[in-house]
Amino acid sequence: MAECVPDAAGFIDLDVPEYAYMFGFLQADGHLSRGTGQKGRLTVEVSARDVGLLRSFQKLTPYYSRITERTRSTNFAAMSTTAVWSLYSLEARTRLNGLGLPYGRKSGTIAPPGVEFSYRDYLRGLIDADGSVGHTNRGFPFVSLTTASSAIASCLCDYGKDVTGVGRTPGRNSRDGIHNVLYMMEAAQRLAADLYYPGCLSLERKHTAADSLSAWVRPTGMRAAYTARRWSDPEDRALLELNSPKVAADVLGRTVKSCDIRLWRLRNGLVPMPGAG
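Above: the chain sequence. Below: its structure as tokens.
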């Protein structure tokens, strides 16, 4: 991971990959609570094996915070040890709240930030917190995200289509009204390789799982994979010249979100400029 030196002015700048990831993780797995007066805190609780991630958050935060551990009985294990990161600064909490981390219960109300942000890092944070990466029982690669937020589900579907060429409809399941966005096979390989790039901030165990997906090869005789609609040089040039995702969507026959993501990827050097390859 590239060195990110924290300061109060640049704290949680979502153009910075580490902060975009951190914010996505906090939206999914953090809890912002109010106290009397100006009191309150942000807490994130993870398994003790993932305490390294909390230490990274602590280093990225130019305000006092602390990490503690607790052991208790749960529904899943007789005894479970977790690590808890606690941040108390009102200035920090106000900034996080302003970007879209609500106080109290939030699962269905969170949404992607309304400012420019690093899409793949933000989405990786959400998947590390509320998603899964690995192989099915039959050995097929998959990447999934479970969320109660329609806006979050749509964001992943739009980004996933841009990266993999595979469309997903962010519908809710009938049992509990939750969105389950799932990518399989080659689409999962492409998405995992994009999200979990070398040196990125992530849960180490999920990064290892994401890296393992690349070794899978479609078995002989299995139906051919879906062929993605790739972005061409002329489309990229038109997108850059039009400089408007909405106008480009009409001209190119793509979605506005797809054009928005592609334009962001071009501007940030995540894909080659037209004619550069």
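The mean pLDDT is 89.
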